[in-house]
Automatic annotation (TrEMBL):
This is ABC transporter G member 26. Pfam families: ABC2_membrane, ABC2_membrane_7, ABC_tran. InterPro entries: AAA+_ATPase (IPR003593), ABC2_TM (IPR013525), ABC_transporter-like_ATP-bd (IPR003439), ABCG_dom (IPR043926), ABCG_transporters (IPR050352), P-loop_NTPase (IPR027417). It comes from Turnera subulata. The lineage of its organism: Eukaryota, Viridiplantae, Streptophyta, Embryophyta, Tracheophyta. The keyword Flavoprotein does not apply. The gene is ABCG26.
Length: 687
């Protein structure tokens, strides 16, 4: 019995959303939504009884009905100090924009927005560019939390992190890894985000369905592309972004301008898909610029925003009636969306107006008076009704409230996630790893060094100094190559990481470990080729043990430096700053690395002990010039024991493997620090 139930659930999870069993007609009133939610509760309860081992969580198979209420939502940002050099411009900007009130040096972006939306409905956010649609969407999606006032509840519960995996957010800019193909993007997302109990076949089938539904068959094997990588078209990228989010059937789907860049047929098709998703029980909020008339009437609710104020909220189809009741009527046949946008911008050419709009006074021009009038009417006519409705609404059933607050377990174990993320990271970065130019550079430099130090000897101190110079150069080369190879990784991948972490797709530790391990392959691969050439051309000690020990030392230097680069990248998360800090510290460690410095003042002596270059260089020297070689050198005359050389802050050649342990500890320590910095920075970042 239980098996059959599990199969049913799996089938449901695979079935197209439009064919879901929870079809209801678009409901606009709260009553319908409550009924809907009650039905959903019964279903959930039924399933919970059927699956007793607790492994399957009903919430993973069917969307949890979510009713979103927002009341008096305000959002403000700190104003940057006025940098305008033009006093006239500053003066004008201070008076000409009454909507942009400045309080305590903050600019108000959202100015008291109230509304609600339930499962089965689509709410369209409309308004002129810069009116605050995206900001409101981010606030509702929990992406903006600071400086937000008012109340936003999900089944009467405020936002909490357990909601992350129930919310799908399609951002205005498509945030997709550029080197993956469309299919790879969706497959990796499916394997990371779909419940663990679904078989791989079912996950592939879900991807197939999304590709078909969104018309992505033609470009499924094309790379996503980006600024420097050719790839799919803007519309295809947008559809892939949408597929990426709807793949997991989120309960609350937020979309920022999903139709921008699409032709009208594709846009209509997309809206149909959204309708299907809504009918199957999702709550959908979308910003939209200029929908066609056909599209406009598919929305259940409309929130029209002007300069951060609401000017209409309610049934989309009834919006024209409302404005007509205020005596705003189009004089010619117009697309309703165009008419509403004209009103929200105050551009009223071709629109008949009521006579009670106050004459523009002071700095207010006529556009502003229309907007002010509409804002006032909203405040007096619509807002009280909206608030009353919200307060009269029955509370959501208790277990739905509980479900909102219950954090779902990870659907995959740490190792399972790591295997998928490792594969994805490798695919995404493999072009960097096997970059021909990089290989040519490493091999070219190796050959050049080999020729310059061709069969170098250590018969006297001058020769010995020469060879030690080469060792220090090798140390610098791999230190800087590895630091700069690693420092930009996190700043570059920040947007992808923030997006995926906001959706709780995987553990951050998984991402970090996979990223560092993948890159380590390259940090080990290149020094190996390099050393194979330099070592034998330059005439280092010809024993197998010594070659492998030198190779190991070089790789260890590269791997430790990679950790340092990651630390700077993670600590700043900014390409420019990370590069600057890395070069500064590299320079300091280089100077105190033991080659140049002979008379460091005692108060600066400590620097060398934190310099991985100091230990790396010592290790290379130890491997190459152990007691035997120096003794031989000395016995032929002219070569003093290295310890007594005044030119190097060198080695106690009798030492053991302490440099190896120090470098290993540093490689691990820098990585741990990098991980915690990354964790802190990513939690603070918003998209
Ligand atoms: N973090 C911020 N700092 C300063 N200003 C901001 C910030 N976020 C938003 N704004 C400003 O708030 C206003 C609303 O921005 P928002 O992106 O929400 O507009 P929008 O209606 O979505 O516009 P569009 O349709 O062009 O995307 C804009 O004037 C924008 O410059």
């Amino acid at each position: 019995m239980e098996d059959r139930r599990v199969e049913e659930i799996q089938d449901m999870a695979l079935s197209p959303p439009t064919m879901g069993s929870m079809q209801i007609s678009g409901s606009n009133g709260f009553g319908n939504n409550m009924e809907f939610m009650s039905q959903a509760c019964l279903r959930n309860r039924h399933t919970e009884i059927d699956i007793e081992d607790g492994k399957l969580n009903m919430n993973q198979e069917q969307p949890l009905p979510i009713f979103v209420k927002f009341e008096d939502v305000e959002f403000k940002v700190r104003r940057p100090r006025d940098s305008s050099a033009n006093p006239a411009k500053t003066a004008v900007s201070k008076v000409a924009s009454p909507g942009d009130e400045v309080q305590d040096n903050y600019k108000r972006i959202l100015k008291g927005i109230t509304g609600s939306i339930g499962p089965g409905e689509i709410l369209a956010l409309m308004g002129p560019s810069g009116s605050g649609k995206t900001t409101l969407l981010k606030v509702i999606g929990g992406r903006l939390r600071e400086n937000v006032t008012g109340s936003i509840t999900y089944n009467d519960i405020p936002y909490n992190t357990a909601l992350k995996r129930r919310i799908g957010f399609v951002t205005q800019e498509d945030v997709l890894l550029p080197q993956l193909t469309v299919e790879e993007t969706l497959v990796f997302a499916a394997f990371l985000r779909l419940p663990g109990f679904m078989s791989p076949q079912q996950k592939y089938a879900r991807v197939e369905l999304i590709i078909k539904e969104l018309g992505l068959e033609r470009c499924r094997h094309t790379r996503i592309g980006g600024a420097f990588v050719p790839g799919i078209s803007g519309g295809e990228r947008k559809r892939t972004s949408i597929g990426y989010e709807i793949l997991v059937d989120p309960s609350l789907l937020l979309l920022d301008e999903p139709t921008s860049g699409l032709d009208s047929t594709s846009a209509n098709r997309l809206i149909q898909i959204l309708q299907g998703l809504a009918k199957a029980g999702r709550t959908i909020i979308t910003t939209i610029h200029q929908p066609s008339s056909r599209m406009f009437y598919t929305f259940d609710k409309l929130l029209l925003i002007s300069e951060g104020y609401p000017v209409y909220h309610g049934n989309a189809g009834e919006s024209l009636e409302y404005f007509s009741s205020l005596r705003f009527n189009p004089e010619i046949a117009m697309n309703p969306a165009e008419f509403l946008l004209d009103l929200a911008t105050g551009q009223v050419t071709g629109i008949s107006l009521p006579d009670d709009i106050p004459e523009p006074e002071g700095s207010l021009d006529s556009d502003k008076s229309v907007i002010k009038y509409l804002q006032l009417k909203y405040k007096t006519l619509l807002e009280p009704k909206e608030k009353e409705e919200n307060s009269q609404n029955r509370r959501a059933p208790e277990h739905l409230q509980l479900a909102i607050q219950t954090k779902k377990d990870w659907t995959l174990s740490w190792l399972e996630q790591a295997i998928i993320i490792y594969k994805r990271t490798f695919k995404e970065r493999r072009r960097d790893y096997f970059d021909k130019l990089r290989l040519v550079q490493a091999l070219g430099i190796a050959v050049m060094l080999g020729l310059l130090w061709w069969k170098s000897e250590t018969r006297n101190e001058a020769q010995l100094r020469d060879q030690i110079g080469l060792l220090f150069y090798i140390c610098i080369f791999w230190t800087s190559a590895s630091i700069f190879g690693a420092v930009y990784v996190f700043p570059f991948e920040k947007i992808y990481l923030v997006k995926e972490r906001k959706a709780d797709m995987y553990r951050l530790s998984v991402y970090y470990v996979c990223s560092t391990l993948c890159d380590m392959t390259a940090h080990v691969f290149y020094p190996t080729f390099f050393m194979l050439i330099v070592y034998f051309m330059a005439g280092f000690k010809r024993t197998v043990a010594c070659f492998f020990a030198t190779l190991f030392a070089t790789q260890l230097i590269a791997v430790t430096s990679q950790g340092v680069g990651e630390l700077f990248g993670a600590a700043s998360m900014n390409i420019k700053r990370a590069g600057m800090f890395a070069s500064l510290v590299l320079m300091l460690f280089l100077l105190t690395g033991g080659y140049y410095t002979q008379h460091i003042p005692s108060f600066m002596q400590w620097v060398k002990y934190i310099s991985f270059m100091y230990y790396g260089f010592r290790l290379l020297l130890k491997v190459q010039y152990d007691g035997g070689q120096l003794y031989e050198c000395e016995s032929k005359g002219g070569c003093r024991p290295l310890q007594s050389s005044p030119s190097f802050d060198t080695v106690n050649l009798g030492g053991g493997l302490q440099e190896v342990w120090v470098l290993l500890a540093m490689a691990l320590g820098f990585r741990l620090l990098a991980y915690f910095c990354l964790r802190h920075k990513i939690n603070m970042c918003h998209l």
